[in-house]
Amino acid sequence: xTDLLLKSLDKQSSHPMQKQIYDIVRFAVLDHTLISGQKLxxxxxxxxxxxxxxxxxxLAYDRLIAENYLITRAGNGTYVAPTLKQPxxxxxxxxxxQHSMQLSGRGSQLSFLPGGxxxxxxxxxxxxxDSQAFPFHIWKRLIARHLSKGNLALSGYANHGGLSQLRxxxxxYLKISRSVNCEPAQIIITSGxxxxxxxxxxxxxxxxxxxxxxxxCHWAFPTVFAASGLEVxxxxxxxxxxxxxxxxxxxxxxxxxxxxxxxxxxxxxMPLSRRLELLQSARAHNLWVIEDDYDSEFRYxxxxxxxxxGLDNDGRVIYIGTFSKAxxxxxxxxxxxxxxxxxxxxxxxxxxxxxPGALHxxxxxxxxxxxxxxxxxIRKMRGExxxxxxxxxxxxxKSLGDIVRLSSARAGLHVFAQFSADVNYQSVxxxxxxxxxxxxxxxxxxxxxxxxxxxFVLGFGGxxxxxxxxGVQSLTTAVSRSIDGERSSSSDPSDLGR
Length: 498
Known about the structure:
Layout: H1 2-6, H2 17-30, E1 39-40, H3 43-50, H4 54-66, E2 70-73, E3 77-80, H5 93-99, H6 105-110, H7 136-146, H8 164-177, E4 187-190, H9 193-204, E5 210-215, H10 220-227, E6 231-238, E7 241-242, E8 253-258, H11 272-285, E9 288-292, E10 317-322, E11 334-337, H12 343-354, H13 359-370, H14 373-400, E12 404-406, E13 414-419, H15 425-434, H16 449-452, E14 455-459, H17 465-490
């Protein structure tokens, strides 16, 4: 309020200060510079800031209150009164659109690239962990430990790739759990997978270069690469994962992305022989390999498989991890493990481009790992998610039978479902939404009609065990309506009513 008045008041003007203050506040209310319900400073405080008489402020306030621009609440101050939702002087939308500057080519393209589902809860939204099961009481205590005036060093920006304690904790965890060969200096803390991929795109490829992604893949990769000015090509995926050897590699290809431990979305686990073939092919084509290990903690039929990065002798694999699946989605904390000769470049780029902060959260996460809470939570949720996946598979096979074929991998937080030709893809999506069911859809880099139009990703991470069967029943109802609708639309009109 003080700044608003100081930039407009003219103490040399012939117009009284009271009238000037009245006019400035009145117009600010009408054009929503001051929004409805906003509390204004007291006349005493404002007079002190502006170095003018308190009576002048009070008289201006009184007139604004009398004309219903401001209201008072007994013992609680002065507030902006409710006004029209549309600012009084706003021009019609068509005028703004007609004369506005246009987006860049990449900006326009971004609007049409694959994106999120728009739903973060419910059956069967994929990629969502169970926030209800997370020990927030411990997380709150750890954050409070570091969020105080005694830790002012944590209130600034992060340098050198992130807080050293967290980088050390992650490096130690990865060496044991994922057989990743790394030192803390190779860890770069990010705000999640999207920022990790963005950094890789900026530092490892130039505009016009190509990145190969698995086909199908998670929507984030083609979207982030395309937004960075890269071309995106699809690599062939079969029962053993990405087959780079038999995929077309464009001349200016610089990056290939893989999810070897649990391919998204089909659930295929890449065997050792294919991993070694992929590394050999990447060497032959001189490619960087981005290994997305997004939910490796959750494997239910044996120990988690060692990472691809642990097999790399060339220093060409960049390992990406996230805490969003293991903890909760909103934690927005991820990391990169880069080859040692790239660590300084990535650290500097992260600092220059993103100015990372939230050091108190990084400190809390380091404690969360060091004190054993992270591994304890993983063990607990591994058992819980295993039960959910088993029940989801059993319920789907019982209710839908031959109509659906499920992925075989016992891992992750989703099941990949391929429906029979009787099921109309778009109809199932529409009918499921009516039942309150949200299905994930695979992202294909190129059109594969035989597969694309019949596949869904069913997430169970955010669905409590007791709600899975109900969710499957609702999905079954949606599928049945879809099949009945297909039969009705394709039947001979003369058969109706028989």
